Amino acid sequence: MAHEDDEEYESEEDFKNDDWFKENYLDLIEEHPREWIAVSEQRLICTGATRVEVDDKARELLGEKEYSIYFVLPVDMAMDVGYSRR
């Protein structure tokens, strides 16, 4: 989303989606490793092999509605960066 001074801008919805992504990350790496995902209103909307594919699917499903895109690391890489179940 563009902002007045063309700096990258994160909305409140982006922050909520970020929190959802972090809270659900361990489940996501089990179910969608090495996939791009789109999240809107703290819900998984679609997945795909490339960012472009997911962006196209999300736009088709949501139109102008806001969404966030993330890449889910493979399990072995996620564990290397410190994610673990409590």
Fold blueprint:
Layout: H1 12-23, H2 25-31, E1 35-40, E2 43-48, H3 51-62, E3 68-72, H4 75-80
Antiparallel strand pairs: 1-2, 1-3
Structure description:
With 86 residues, this protein is α+β, with helices and mostly antiparallel strands. It has a domain at 21-80. Helix content is 43%, strand content 20%. It has helices at residues 12-23, 25-31, 51-62, 75-80, and strands spanning 35-40, 43-48, 68-72. Strands 2-1-3 form a three-stranded antiparallel sheet, with helices on both faces. A hairpin with a 2-residue loop joins β1 (35-40) and β2 (43-48). It is globular. Mean pLDDT is 86; it is low at 1-6.
* Broad shape: globular
Task: Kindly report how far apart the N and C termini lie.
Answer: 35 Å
Major beta-sheet overview = 3 strands, antiparallel
Give the DSSP E fraction (strand runs of 2 or more residues): 15-25%
* H/E series: HHEEHEH
Low-confidence stretches: 1-6
From the alpha carbons, calculate the radius of gyration and give it in angstroms: 14 Å
Helix content: 40-55%
Quote the average pLDDT.
Answer: 86
Annotation field: number of helices: 4
> Based on DSSP secondary structure assignment, what is the total number of beta strands?
3
The main sheet orders its strands as 2-1-3
Summarize the structure.
This protein has helices at 12-23, 25-31, 51-62, 75-80; strands spanning 35-40, 43-48, 68-72. With 86 residues, the protein is α+β, with helices and mostly antiparallel strands.
Features:
3-stranded antiparallel beta sheet, 4 helices, single chain, 86 residues, 3 strands, disordered N terminus, alpha+beta
